[in-house]
Design brief:
Layout lengths: L15 E4 L14 E2 L4 E2 L4 E7 L13 H19 L6 E7 L12 E7 L4 H27 L4 H11 L1
Antiparallel strand pairs: 1-4, 2-3, 4-6, 5-6
Length: 163
């Protein structure tokens, strides 16, 4: 298959990731800034990646057999770990890109990864909300846990979910 940029995809058999041909930002993007009274602009650097779930162009992630979904999840994990190692990357967002209405140049179901040099405000806000909830709920959890004589494995499992 030839992408919109003219680059030919390899003959991939499972999930496959590549750098977006028409990325919204990159490591090579110019440093554009504006700190005026009405507009605050900071440079955005990073990478945009595309994830093809399958070479079958008419199948969504939800329609894949469980083994193929697991392969996609392994690719997500690998991409996340690789991108997080980059010294300039502060946030990695993996999401599904659906539909022509949002300007998709790749017509079949696929996902994307935005790895950026900043943490979006919405992520910061949600982390603070999560931590506040954990602080509020911890005493309740520990009382319940002690009453039920839960074992250390349950406590460690809860910690893994939080982290």
């Amino acid at each position: 298959m030839v992408r919109a940029s003219g680059v030919k995809n390899p003959d991939y058999k499972g999930p496959w990731a590549f750098t977006n041909d028409f990325a919204s930002f990159s490591f090579d993007a110019p440093d554009v800034s504006n700190n005026s009274k009405f507009q605050k602009v900071r440079p955005v650097h990073g990478t945009c990646r595309v994830i093809c779930y399958t070479p079958r162009h008419n199948v969504t992630l939800a329609q894949l057999p469980i083994e193929e979904v697991e392969a996609v999840v392994r690719l997500w994990k690998n991409e996340y770990e690789t991108l997080s190692q980059h010294e300039k990357i502060k946030n990695v967002l993996i999401f599904e890109n659906k539909g022509k209405v949002i300007g998709v140049s790749n017509p079949h179901p696929h996902g994307q990864i935005y790895a950026t040099n900043f943490v979006p405000r919405i992520v910061d806000v949600n982390v603070v909300l999560l931590l506040n909830t954990i602080v509020k709920m911890a005493p309740i959890y520990w009382k319940t846990c002690c009453r039920k004589s839960c074992n250390m494995a349950n406590v460690l499992y809860m910690r893994m979910i939080i982290l």
